[in-house]
Amino acid sequence: MNVIVVGGGVAGVASAIALRRLGVEVAVYEAYAEPAGRVGSFLSLASNGLRVLRALGVLEQVRRAGVEVPRQRMWAGSGKLLGDVPRGRLGGDDLHSVTLMRGALVETLRAEALAAGARIVTGERLADAVAMDTGVRAVFASGRTAEASLLIGADGIHSVTRTLLDPHAPAPAYAGLYSISGVSEGVHVEPGVFHMTFARHGAFLHLAAPDGGVWWSAQVASPGQPDLDRTDDAWLSHLAGLHRHERVPSAVLAATTALHRPTLTHTLDPVAVRHDDRIVLLGDADHPVGAGQGASMALEDALVLARLLGTETSVPAALTAYDAERSDRLARMARAAAGNRESRTAGPLGRWARDLMMPVGIRLFHERAMAWLYTYDCGELPATREGVLRD
User: Fold this and answer.
1) Cut 0.90: pTM above it
2) Which of 242, 248, 311, 356 matches a 20 to 30 Å C-alpha distance to 117?
3) What's the 3-state SS for the chain?
């Protein structure tokens, strides 16, 4: 069996690692040579995603590329503490959330995929996928072609694979939120704590970076799409105005030494066609979630798909089983992500109610409310070749 993976981000490269652990021949085709592609800044991995990394044998490598963040504190714009909870885990879980630059995560996973025997080809964009009797032929914009038993579409929210599967597939839409991230120096921030301020115009995130600086991200609520081509000085002046009433975000912004490329947050309506007999969608190509779970959900996808390819008796059966196993969890995650976005775009009355009720809700219900997300375990890869991978 051999597999083509379209997209060399978290979902695509993790699936390559998982399949190589099972002895499958894998080639990853990616448009961008640089690990972060056009998306910079940092991301966090929660305990459910870290379990996948442990099952794939790459947890320690990823930990070394980032910083462990055991706690999360949530603040009102006034400076009132709304909650102090374990970050990305339940209280008794010793898998502490890891935060790292997206490029560092992808670079680490690509190195592991190459070491495991996968091929990674950059500078290639999928243009078409043609079904064959026993597989699929991928056609790339460069004119290159490749054939495989299975094509995995892990090509992100603007997925070409999704539209090839279904010409009527939903297109991403701007979600009323955009992010600008950066690095600051000379501001003291307690290490090991992820700070989230619910500000007047969105949310402001910051934490101590491994090198002693501060990583920050302003998630700005805006009904209309902003002009992303402003200069760094214009962006910083804009953010300073938005956060002028919030003391800590203002101090972090004033100490900025570098900005990352601003990005838009998108939503995607439920995807009706997630696979056929030889093509399947993974990660953001199928279900962009955000809410600090995008990378962790992509990792879950990769492990579950590889496990089922190792246990089911045919590729179509494995893809059907994968869809069935992931559907409910991903739908629940989509609902949680929608609520997360709404909390960042709340108006004055909504902010008042949130600041009043959140401390009580966190104290009484947080652990129980988050157990479904953080305690989930995708299982392990089969120890021997079975099913469709049988020699």
Assistant:
1) yes
2) 311
3) CEEEEECCCHHHHHHHHHHHHCCCEEEEEECCCCCCCCCCCEEEECHHHHHHHHHHCCHHHHHHHCEECCEEEEEECCCCEEEEEECCCCCCCCCCCEEEEHHHHHHHHHHHHHHHCCEEEECCCEEEEEEECCEEEEEECCCCEEEECEEEECCCCCCHHHHHHCCCCCCCEEEEEEEEEEEECCCCCCCCEEEEEEECCEEEEEEECCCCCEEEEEEEECCCCCCCCCCHHHHHHHHHHHCCCCHHHHHHHHCEEEECCCEEEEECCCCCCCECCCEEECHHHCCCCCCCCHHHHHHHHHHHHHHHHCCCCCHHHHHHHHHHHHHHHHHHHHHHHHHHHHHHCCCHHHHHHHHHHHHHHHHHHHHHHHHHHHCCCCCCCCCCCCHHHCC
